[in-house]
Amino acid sequence: MARHPVTLIPGDGVGPEICDATVRVLEATGVEFDWDVQQAGEASIKDYGTPLPDHVLESVRKNRVALKGPITTPIGSGFRSVNVALRQALDLYALVRPVKAYKGARNLRDDLDFVIVRENTEDIYAGIEFEQGTPDAQHLIDEISTLAKKKIRPDSGLSIKPISISGTQRIVEFAFDYARRNNRHKVTAVHKANIMKHTDGLFLAVARKVAEKNPDIEFEDRIVDNMCMQLVLRPKEYDVLCCPNLYGDIISDLGAGMIGGLGLAPGANIGGAGAVFEATHGSAPKYTGMNKVNPMAVMLSGVMMLRYLEETSAADAMEKAIANVIALGENVTYDLKEKRDDPTSVGTSQVADAVIAQLKAVPEPA
Ligand code: NAD
User: Given pLDDT bands bounded at 50, 70 and 90, which one contains residue 39?
Assistant: First the structure.
């Protein structure tokens, strides 16, 4: 059996604990990995003067696959988000976030199964911002006020929202390809084109054109606010949601809440250069080193990684083992319990032990 070279970025906060738990489970599937462990984030600033050293990017480029823990972004420190920077540097333009209800989780309902495909490189996340009160912000306010013939208050800060034809085309094509490869029948484009005609309007127009070339998959669109309501009322009507960056981010957390919380919400950042698998949630700093948080979101990201590596039977077995642990409800962390202070909840590493025990109990595929 081939060994898979994989970059492992444990991250900070709870990252190292949940990654360690996930690596143990991945190795218990019998698939073999060569882990190339790389540090990024605040710890790297001390050693390399940057939170995202080039050698980390090089490692992901070489291995083409990475498993990543969350990385803290100190608010307002001028420290650019390493997570966003990594996605942009590697042009990981598609963020895939499945929303699947596992029996026994604190689901809004038990039949949820849809996938969010979030554009990952542009929109308000492009990082083009102008701080209130600076000469650049003032200059831009003057320019825009002249061009748009509309007044912007002089004490405003500005964040720019670029959405391009090429960026939209590739994410919508990705969504259709994803739907086809995963036996899904419909793509829904999510937007606010009625208000932002030249960004979301462009997104919708391009999505419609791409849809014409993919007649085997159904296509429709929804305005983002209506989309949120529809997902709560009629989630069965939705399959693959294709979203610009910000709406994808918000809907991902809505989706996570519908299936019992961030502890069960996995993700994959995918682009031409490779893929980085990571949970939706952040570094939960207050729980650092406490062996407390749920490792299943990273484990389920690991399942997505196994599928990406075409280790399908190992992926199926690992997902089943995780599902069994959730369904049994004994070896689960506090977030999966009815009450947060339930004394029967277990720690991060005990969840890994329980999943490994289930893996050993799951019969080998014929
Ligand atoms: P968070 O997701 O880290 O945590 C919010 C709360 O959700 C936690 O306090 C906890 O109650 C709960 N939670 C999160 N993960 C959980 C888990 N696995 N099991 C059980 N409960 C869990 O969000 P935050 O506090 O807003 O962000 C903390 C830091 O993480 C910030 O610096 C943020 O920028 C960063 N962040 C990183 C990533 C990433 O690395 N991709 C993503 C989001 C946020």
Answer: very high
> Can you name the residues that pair with 37 across neighbouring β-strands?
8
Report whether pLDDT(146) > 60: yes
Cα separation values, 182 from 129, 172, 266, 304, 351, Å: 38, 15, 17, 12, 29
Q: Which residues are catalytic?
A: 125, 192, 225, 249
- Closest residue CA from atom 26 of ligand 1: 282
pLDDT of residue 42 exceeding 80 = no
Does the Cβ of 297 fall within 6 Å of ligand 1?
yes
Pocket test for ligand 1, best of 67, 253, 281 (most atoms within 8 A of CB): 281
Please list the alpha-helical segments (H only) found in 193-291.
200-212, 224-233, 245-258
Predicted structure pTM score? 0.93
* 200-212 helix and 165-181 helix, angle to the nearest 10 degrees: 50
Q: Identify which of 270, 331, 263 has the alpha carbon closest to the alpha carbon of residue 299.
A: 263
Separation in Å, CA 129 to CA 88, 118, 120, 149, 251: 16, 21, 17, 21, 23
3-state SS assignment for residue 33: strand
Q: How far is the CA of 195 from the centre of ligand 1 (A)?
A: 31
| 208-235 residue pLDDT tens | 999 999 999 999 999 999 999 999 999 9
Cα dihedral 245→251→253→258 (10° resolution):
-160
Q: Contact at 8 Å (CB) between 247 and 191?
A: yes
Binning pLDDT at 50, 70 and 90, where does residue 340 land?
confident
